[in-house]
Amino acid sequence: MEEKEKLTIQDAENAQKGVFALVMAYPDYPALFKADNKTIRWNSVNTDRSIGLFPMQGAVYLKKYVSGSYVAQMPFQMVYKCAPTTNKSSIEAQDMLNSLAAWMEESGIEFKDPHLTLQSIARTSPVFGSEQDDKTVMYAVNMQLKYFYKK
Fold first, then answer.
1. Is 45 exposed, middle or buried (CB count within 10 Å of its CB: 0-12, 13-18, 19+)?
2. CA-CA to 39 of 20 to 30 Å: which in 2, 52, 84, 88?
3. Count of CB atoms situated within 10 Å of the CB of 75
């Protein structure tokens, strides 16, 4: 089986900006969570409550055209770091992350780059607990973005 060509950094960065903007636009965050550049992070999470977006290995070109246009996919992980104090608040945190992911699947991304068009965004895992310390828990969901770039 032929191995797919890895996405260049520049092409991946354009897609990442679209994913970030989409997460910022989610309308149903909990009342105590303000979505901004301090609480929604690319490649990191805050020490307390935040959402982190992490690109994963496997960003590839699915199809390249002679014109320079292409179809690509980029897997990423979305992590919600919070400090639930009860089982109920833990379930609510997981539900919020799942609802955000489902909303992303339905909403679509409007890229700032007019050459990029979303083909699909989908969850590739259920929400799961990824890390925990004495005060915080991180819940994660793996997702995959597929888009078309028109040269």
1. buried
2. 88
3. 17
Burial of 113 (0-12, 13-18, 19+ CB in 10 A): exposed
Query: What residues are paired with 120 via a beta bridge?
Result: 146
Query: Tokens 């992350």 correspond to what residue?
Result: 97
Q: What DSSP line would sit under 65-89, residue for residue? A: -TTS-EEEEEEEEEEEEE---SHHH
Residue 7's closest CA among 65, 53, 54, 62? 62
What one-character DSSP code corresponds to residue 101?
H
Nearest Cα to 146, choosing from 130, 129, 128, 123? 123
**Whole-angstrom distance, CA of residue 81 vs CA of residue 90:** 11
What's the pLDDT tens digit per position in 85-112?
Answer: 899 999 999 999 999 999 999 987 777 7
Q: How far is the C-alpha of 1 from the C-alpha of 103, rounded, in Å? A: 35
Give the tokens for residue 74.
Answer: 């980029």
Helix (H, G, I), strand (E, B) or coil at 105: helix
114 contacts: CB under 8 Å, gap ≥ 6: none
